[in-house]
């Protein structure tokens, strides 16, 4: 019995049992009676069930198949395999005229299934493959690709699990289990006992507790996977902020209790709340009544989140609901947040305004760059200039077009000299995540930043063993670097441009840099390399390499001095 670790006995009847861990405190325990007292037949059945269970257990662990469905499917495997064993034994006793030929065909069948399971359904057979294996493989391929086989597999799975509407992905998963089980079940050739024992009734194992249905708990489990997949922390924080926002507005923090009317009410509240919500730490503890009371005191142009923000919140809820369903939680089947998305009324290029050269020249006449009262009162006139993150980040934005988080999260090691050119190295780091693969890039440092002493600032930070160029920008509560400079930029814009800067923000520096490069006649591909945008087609995305650094440096030099 050592060869079958999942095989044991209950009285005289053999049983199969397997345990696995799904969460840190949850054990999935599946026990099934094999319905036989014969040791040889029990080994054959256990091998088959173990083969099928390898992928079943994997699907349970990643929440694609519930433990109940897995248990039912494996029970069906046992019943069908026992019936098949009995039929083969009967045919062998009555119909076999050449046992050696039977063995040869069995070996070919085993080899064909093994090749398909390990190399795929449509793999190319090696030239030395025997004709019998080729013929057997082709027969299996035709059978697995047939509509009849698809219906049979789908019907069997649905019958045993009561899981209707098998999706294309789920069918591929079940087919993978089927092929893997077939391959492993054909390995070996133990002698079979022709006597079939009656199936013993099996008491189903108790259903393990489902994970917490609280929205924030679902998000934390989802974020743990997304973090492994490389999703940037900013996006993961947005999911967590959504959880607090939805609970505050709806009074519901359980994903299984949300109904479509709740989502409609949530969307309506988003259109009535202050546009600035979430930018102050005080907003985290505000109640719905307090938020709406604040909105009532604001002018109309300060009320209502943008269409894009509302749709983002609805998409978050949609993803969270789908994730919870995959975990086996009883989410309302009529819940469809994506159905309530609002239609955009503004073209993408018109959503964000870009600074003009004159506006930026006015911005950089603020006391931050001409002389401040103190570092705390940096926007008030005085005699001292403090070259901190508030000073450098807007300048870097104007001379690179980089994103706020890319700039605020710079480390001393991100200032590099390549081919004799000083550059910003924009890559993933412990301080910040980049948005996507096309965001990973080298941006030459504008000569004006060097004239202002930026390289000296970087060298000083390196000598002080700082992990960040701008440690004063870090906010513990938000675990981020960019928000503080974003708020200060808003203050500076309001102070210098007043109502003319209402649609401008730190992000407008990115649009400004791109517009300036475009208007200066810089090649579109070079602009995309500097800004960090994907190529327009498969050629640009896959085959075209980044422009040479000297070409990028020449393009950066065409951005006008604004400070």
UniProtKB/TrEMBL annotation:
<dbReference type="InterPro" id="IPR002104">
    <property type="entry name" value="Integrase_catalytic"/>
</dbReference>
<dbReference type="GO" id="GO:0015074">
    <property type="term" value="P:DNA integration"/>
</dbReference>
<protein>
    <submittedName>
        <fullName>Integrase</fullName>
    </submittedName>
</protein>
<dbReference type="InterPro" id="IPR050090">
    <property type="entry name" value="Tyrosine_recombinase_XerCD"/>
</dbReference>
<keyword id="KW-0233">DNA recombination</keyword>
<keyword id="KW-0238">DNA-binding</keyword>
<keyword id="KW-0229">DNA integration</keyword>
<dbReference type="InterPro" id="IPR011010">
    <property type="entry name" value="DNA_brk_join_enz"/>
</dbReference>
<dbReference type="GO" id="GO:0006310">
    <property type="term" value="P:DNA recombination"/>
</dbReference>
<dbReference type="GO" id="GO:0003677">
    <property type="term" value="F:DNA binding"/>
</dbReference>
<dbReference type="Pfam" id="PF00589">
    <property type="entry name" value="Phage_integrase"/>
</dbReference>
<comment type="similarity">
    <text>Belongs to the 'phage' integrase family.</text>
</comment>
<dbReference type="InterPro" id="IPR044068">
    <property type="entry name" value="CB"/>
</dbReference>
<dbReference type="InterPro" id="IPR013762">
    <property type="entry name" value="Integrase-like_cat_sf"/>
</dbReference>
């Amino acid at each position: 019995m050592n060869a079958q670790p999942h095989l044991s006995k209950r009285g005289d009847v053999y049983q199969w049992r397997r345990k696995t861990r799904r969460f840190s405190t949850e054990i999935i325990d599946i026990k099934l009676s094999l319905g036989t007292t014969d040791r040889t037949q029990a080994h054959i059945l256990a091998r088959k069930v173990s083969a099928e269970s390898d992928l079943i257990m994997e699907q349970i662990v990643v929440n694609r198949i519930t433990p109940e469905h897995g248990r039912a499917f494996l029970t069906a495997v046992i019943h069908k395999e026992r019936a098949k064993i009995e039929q083969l034994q009967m045919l062998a006793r009555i119909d076999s005229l050449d046992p050696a030929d039977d063995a040869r065909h069995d070996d070919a069948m085993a080899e064909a299934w093994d090749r398909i399971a390990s190399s795929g359904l449509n793999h190319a057979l090696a030239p030395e493959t025997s004709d019998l294996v080729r013929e057997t493989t082709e027969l299996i391929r035709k059978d697995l690709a047939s509509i009849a086989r698809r219906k049979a597999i789908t019907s069997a799975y649905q019958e045993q699990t009561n899981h209707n509407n098998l999706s294309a992905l789920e069918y591929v998963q079940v087919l993978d289990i089927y092929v893997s089980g077939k391959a492993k079940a054909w390995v070996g050739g133990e002698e079979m006992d022709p006597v079939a024992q009656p199936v013993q009734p099996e008491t189903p194992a108790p259903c393990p507790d489902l994970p917490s249905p609280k929205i924030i708990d679902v998000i934390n489990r989802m974020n743990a996977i997304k973090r492994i997949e490389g999703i940037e922390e900013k996006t993961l924080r947005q999911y967590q902020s959504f959880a607090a926002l939805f609970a505050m507005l709806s009074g519901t923090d359980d994903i299984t209790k949300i109904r479509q009317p709740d989502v409609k009410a949530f969307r309506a509240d988003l259109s009535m709340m202050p546009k600035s919500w979430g930018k102050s730490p005080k907003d985290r503890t505000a109640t719905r009544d307090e938020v709406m009371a604040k909105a009532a005191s604001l002018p109309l142009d300060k009320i209502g989140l943008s269409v894009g923000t509302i749709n983002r919140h609805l998409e978050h809820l949609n993803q969270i609901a789908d994730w919870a369903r995959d975990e086996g939680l009883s989410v309302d089947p009529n819940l469809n947040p994506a159905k309530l998305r609002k239609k955009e009324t503004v073209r993408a290029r018109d959503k964000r305004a870009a600074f003009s050269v004159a506006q930026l020249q006015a911005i950089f006449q603020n006391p931050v760059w001409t002389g401040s009262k103190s570092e705390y009162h940096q926007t008030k006139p005085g005699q001292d200039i403090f070259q901190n993150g508030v000073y450098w980040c807007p300048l870097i934005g104007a001379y690179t077009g980089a994103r706020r988080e890319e700039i605020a999260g710079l480390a001393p090691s991100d200032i590099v000299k390549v081919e004799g050119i000083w550059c910003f190295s924009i890559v993933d780091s412990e301080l910040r995540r980049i948005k996507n693969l096309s965001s990973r890039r080298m941006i030459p440092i504008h000569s004006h930043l060097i004239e202002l002493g930026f390289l000296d600032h970087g060298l000083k930070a390196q000598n002080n063993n700082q992990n960040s160029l701008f440690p004063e920008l870090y906010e513990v509560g938000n675990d981020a670097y960019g928000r503080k400079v974003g708020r200060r930029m808003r203050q500076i814009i309001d102070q210098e441009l007043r109502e003319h800067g209402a649609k401008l923000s730190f992000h407008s520096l990115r649009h400004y840099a791109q517009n300036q490069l475009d208007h200066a006649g810089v090649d579109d591909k070079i602009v995309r390399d500097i800004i960090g945008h994907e190529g327009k087609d498969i050629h640009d995305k896959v085959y075209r390499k980044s422009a040479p650094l000297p070409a990028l440096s020449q393009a950066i030099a065409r951005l006008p001095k604004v400070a």
